[in-house]
């Protein structure tokens, strides 16, 4: 019994020494991450293009012609229009094809649909969450040097949800609780 106690104390001491080192190593790896991801939450899909535009649009570091390369699915036309209008208003030349000395503004996205549930037992609600991950990359041509790279994740939760609870469930629960109360009160006699 005494050897078990000593071995458990030694293991506990080693665990307390090793765990902080592992946590510190994990934190140091995260600090070296080259890109930053920002998270946003929107209530409707119509807000997504304006959220992406306001997050990614910035004054370009060099006064060169700009080529837009957007692969953003159903948001492509809205985002191209927003970026083109603002770039032209700021005095940049916008081209469709890559020029010899130009900046390529690339915007891509990936969509993920998650089925989630909340609650417990028969009070569980099921809903759908859409996650849109947009990546922004600014590349200077002809040397293909990346000037800027960023990611954002936008979450949109659908307002349509399903519940496991039916119209008769509250009646059944009330009857069950009433039966238990009756049995506890009158069951001892």
Describe this structure in words.
- The chain is rod-shaped and about 95 Å long.
- Helix 2 (48-56) runs parallel beside helix 3.
- The protein starts with a helix and ends with a helix.
- With 189 residues, the chain is an alpha/beta fold.
- The chain has a six-stranded mixed beta sheet with strand order 1-6-5-4-2-3, with helices on one face.
- Residues 1-34 have low confidence and may be disordered.
- It has four helices and six strands; from the N terminus they run αβαβαββββα.
Describe the secondary-structure layout.
Blueprint (H helix, E strand, L loop, with lengths): L1 H30 L5 E6 L5 H9 L9 E6 L4 H14 L4 E2 L7 E16 L6 E16 L4 E19 L5 H18 L3
Parallel strand pairs: 1-6, 2-3, 2-4
Antiparallel strand pairs: 4-5, 5-6
Helix pairs in contact: 2-3
Give structural attributes:
4 helices, alpha/beta, rod-shaped, about 190 residues, single chain, disordered N terminus, 6-stranded mixed beta sheet
Instruction: Assign the structural class, choosing from mainly alpha, mainly beta, alpha/beta, alpha+beta, or little secondary structure.
Output: alpha/beta
Strand content: 25-35%
Work out the number of β strands.
Answer: 6
Rg result = 28 Å
User: Major β-sheet, in short?
Assistant: 6 strands, mixed
The proportion of residues forming helix, as a percent range, comes to 25-40%
């Amino acid at each position: 019994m005494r050897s078990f106690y000593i071995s458990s104390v030694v293991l506990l001491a080693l665990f307390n020494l090793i765990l902080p080192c592992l946590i510190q190593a994990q934190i140091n790896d995260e600090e070296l991450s080259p890109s930053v991801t920002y998270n946003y939450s929107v209530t409707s899909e119509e807000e997504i293009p304006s959220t992406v535009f306001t997050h990614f649009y910035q004054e370009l570091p060099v006064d060169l012609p700009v080529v837009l390369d957007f692969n953003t699915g159903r948001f492509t036309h809205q985002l191209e229009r927003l970026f083109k209008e603002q770039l032209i208003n700021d005095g940049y030349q916008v081209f469709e094809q890559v020029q010899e000395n130009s900046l390529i503004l690339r915007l891509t996205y990936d969509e993920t649909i998650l089925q989630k549930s909340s609650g417990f037992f028969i009070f569980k609600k099921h809903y759908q969450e859409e996650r849109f991950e947009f990546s922004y990359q600014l590349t200077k041509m002809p040397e293909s040097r990346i000037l800027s790279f960023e990611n954002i994740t936008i979450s949109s939760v659908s307002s349509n949800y399903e519940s496991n609870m039916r119209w008769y469930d509250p009646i059944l629960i009330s009857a069950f609780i009433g039966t238990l109360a009756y049995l506890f009160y009158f069951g001892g006699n």
